[in-house]
Amino acid sequence: MIYLMRHGDTLFNVEGRLLGQTDIPLCPIGVDNIKLIACAMTELNIEHIFSSPYLRALQTADIVASAMGK
Questions:
Q1: d(Cα 47, Cα 17) in Å, to the nearest integer?
Q2: Rounded CA gap, 68 and 61, in Å?
Q3: Residue 59, CA distances (Å) to 1, 28, 31, 42 in order
Q4: pLDDT of residue 48
Q5: Please, is 65 exposed, middle or buried when counting C-beta atoms within 10 Å of its C-beta (0-12, 13-18, 19+)?
Q6: How far apart are the C-alpha atoms of 30 and 49, rounded to whole Å?
Q7: Burial status of residue 4 (CB atoms within 10 A of its CB: 0-12, 13-18, 19 or more)
Q8: What pTM does this model have?
Q9: Residue 64 and residue 22: Cα distance in Å, rounded?
Q10: CA 67 – CA 46 distance, rounded (Å)
Q11: Each residue of 15-64: pLDDT tens digit?
């Protein structure tokens, strides 16, 4: 099974601005939302996590991996 997930919110997302290739981190709201989602994802038995090199995607992947003990 393959699951696709978008990165958490950034300040640009919250402000309604287009992000494009701007490499900015998750905002506190984005971190909190991903932590909630990550807890629910622990039951999915995910073996591998792949991410783009953008900071927001890496932070999202790291939060999910940490919740899964990886």
A1: 34
A2: 11
A3: 23, 12, 8, 17
A4: 94
A5: middle
A6: 19
A7: exposed
A8: 0.89
A9: 22
A10: 11
A11: 999 877 889 999 999 999 999 999 999 889 899 999 999 999 999 999 99
CB 42 within 8 A of CB 28: no
CB 30 within 8 A of CB 12: no
DSSP 8-class letter at 4: -
- State the residue for tokens 């792949």: 50
In this predicted structure, what is the pLDDT of residue 51?
96
Contact 56, 10 (CB under 8 A): yes
* CA–CA distance, 62 with 40 (Å, rounded to integer): 15
Residue 2: pLDDT band with limits 50, 70, 90: very high
